[in-house]
Amino acid sequence: MAEIPAAFRDLTEKKAFANLATLMPDGSPQVTPVWFDVADGRVRVNTAKGRVKARNLHDGSPVALAILDPDNPYRYMQIRGRVVRTTEQGADAHIDALAKKYLGKDKYPFRQPGEVRVMYEIEPAAVQTMS
């Protein structure tokens, strides 16, 4: 597993969005800006079942993330890796934690009736940075 360099770990703590690239079933790329965090060296993202990225992500899926520093868009980090864990367990608590990070709210305010949240853990295989 590749590590996020210490000089860029601040990007995992501030309100930086990650542009998550996934592969569609036909092999074409799909990119979505997402909230994220890092736990135990793995990048974690969250979505609802049925969305495009949820259909593209499963254990073993290759992904890439580009994370721009909101304070300096010429400073960024790219992470390439694979999904190593897909789970509904803890996904509601995870989206609430992300809402706290990004919106300052204790609960995710955009939840829809019947929505099922899914959390994906991505293990970095390569990390490139630029500042």
Question: What does this protein structure show overall?
Answer:
By secondary structure, the protein is of the alpha+beta class. The protein has a single domain (6-130), classed as Roll (Pnp Oxidase, Chain A). It has helices at residues 10-13, 52-56, 91-103, and strands at 18-23, 29-34, 37-39, 42-48, 62-69, 72-87, 117-130. Strands 2-1-5-6-7-4-3 form a 7-stranded antiparallel sheet. The two termini are 23 Å apart. The model has no long low-confidence stretch (mean pLDDT 97).
In short:
By secondary structure, the protein is α+β, with helices and mostly antiparallel strands. 17% of the residues lie in helices and 46% in strands.
Shape: globular
- Rg, Cα atoms, Å: 14 Å
Uncertain runs: none
Mean pLDDT: 97
Percent range for helical residues? 10-25%
- What's the number of structural domains? 1
From the 3D coordinates, which CATH architecture would you assign?
Roll
Category by helix and strand content: alpha+beta
**What name goes with the CATH superfamily?**
Electron Transport, Fmn-binding Protein, Chain A
Percentage of residues in DSSP E strands = over 45%
Largest sheet: 7 strands, antiparallel
CATH class: Mainly Beta
How is the largest sheet built, in terms of strand order?
Answer: 2-1-5-6-7-4-3
- H/E element string? HEEEEHEEHE
C-alpha end-to-end distance: 23 Å
SS element count, helices: 3
User: Care to count the β-strands?
Assistant: 7
CATH topology: Pnp Oxidase, Chain A
Could you outline the blueprint of secondary structure elements for this entry?
Blueprint: H1 10-13, E1 18-23, E2 29-34, E3 37-39, E4 42-48, H2 52-56, E5 62-69, E6 72-87, H3 91-103, E7 117-130
Antiparallel strand pairs: 1-2, 1-5, 3-4, 4-7, 5-6, 6-7
